[in-house]
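Example 4.3 (complexes with small molecules)
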Amino acid sequence: MVIKYKSTRGNEETKTSAEAILKGIAKDKGLFVPISFPTIDKKLEEMTHMDYKEVAFYVLEKFLSDFSEDDLRDAIENAYDEKFEAKEIAPIVKASDAYFLELYHGKTLAFKDMALSILPHLLTKAAKKLGEDKKVVILAATSGDTGKAALEGFSDVDQTEIIVFYPDNGVSEVQKRQMITQEGKNTHVVAIKGNFDDAQSGVKKIFNDDDFNEQMNEKGYVFSSANSINIGRLVPQVVYYVYTYIELLKRGEITSGEKINFVVPTGNFGNILAGYYAKKMGLPIGKLICASNKNNVLYDFLNTGVYNINREFFMTNSPSMDILISSNLERLLYELSDHDESLVKNMMNQLDGESKQYTITPKMKELLKGFYGGFTTEEETIETIKKVYDQSKYVLDTHTAVAYKVYEEYKKETKDDTKTVIVSTASPYKFTKSVIKGVVASTEEKNEFKLIEMLSKNTGISIPEPIKDLDKKEILHDIKCEKDAMKDTVKGILGI
Ligand SMILES: *Cc1c(COP(=O)(O)O)cnc(C)c1O
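Answer. The structure with pyridoxal-5'-phosphate bound is encoded below.
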């Protein structure tokens, strides 16, 4: 079965997966989505011998059916190798009353590595297949984690340049250091005076600027995206949902066909959407629990069916979820509306327009029942880190703590005792300044790198290799720009 892709907003012909990955975003500003879903055509209990890479091949081959087997195997081999500190790639740890799917053992210590380790390989293979001879310029907006993971993935990759925009003051010290010390001749890092939404909107604007794109083409460049608006980011994320199920079956934690829940700390709605895609493939998933921080626009949406960004934006201790415009929700709307492209387009225009909100139809709202939304405050996040650490000596990062807290609320409210997996999106070492408050009663220490040592001494968990000596690395990037000067900055970097 060949899976084709098209835009959520309808005004574009169908694409192969290679075309969709290379383009990143559709011309009509919509996102590429599969027209139909492949199904899991093997018995899950017969897949328990598979390791992460084999599951990856199984899933990728279904969605990216126009890639050759050799290309996919080569991409997988190069992505999921010793760059990951855990040999299982995605370890699953049972602690407290849940399973924690640790997606943070890659080079940048956050789950973005799961997809961004493989995206550069898929993208360069797609360019080759399609005979694209222009240099691909990857633009990425980051709330802290995508940026580093994309820089790491694309560093010194032939025929590419990568430009990352991050919100000045909106990322953790470790996140910032990781980015501004990035090596690689083709890497560029820009701090913008604005928040993540400004960065993401700015990047989308550049993608949608026809004149500028034409000008770029003439100079031998094409743009693509490393954000989860690129379908090449989403498909590799479906893999770990399937892998988790198989792994729990193998360990005898669940029986064949038993449904499991996932709790996902959510920002741009990419990770949880990948879970939904896994469910559409036939994976026995009960609820997808969407956990937000104080920026609880998704919580309100899931409860009311109204998505409204007329609200204050907060900077929290889980910064990778500090987002108001969750781009991938558009892909969910496409599914919930039974592929009603004009309806999706209309809603997106409303969100872009003066009202800054849209309301879904009652029928769509009914279909939202597979999701549950919850949110936590910053104080609750720290209390949760403390509680879980005291109880089981397991250390959560702030994002994972948001998820766990929402899970506790969910259980209290629904009495649902379905086995549940908490999708753990970052290493506690990436957000030490906050995590330390849950582990050590109080400290006067302000230096993030001293705090990292303190966290390790207290917990006995060794400091991950990629952030050792990060404070001693040379700073290689120092560009800053106003939020409405992103296009000129791109021009400057490329020398146009
Ligand atoms: C990106 C990120 C999230 C949010 O994931 P989305 O796919 O954007 O919803 C959550 N936690 C961490 C640590 C992240 O880096």
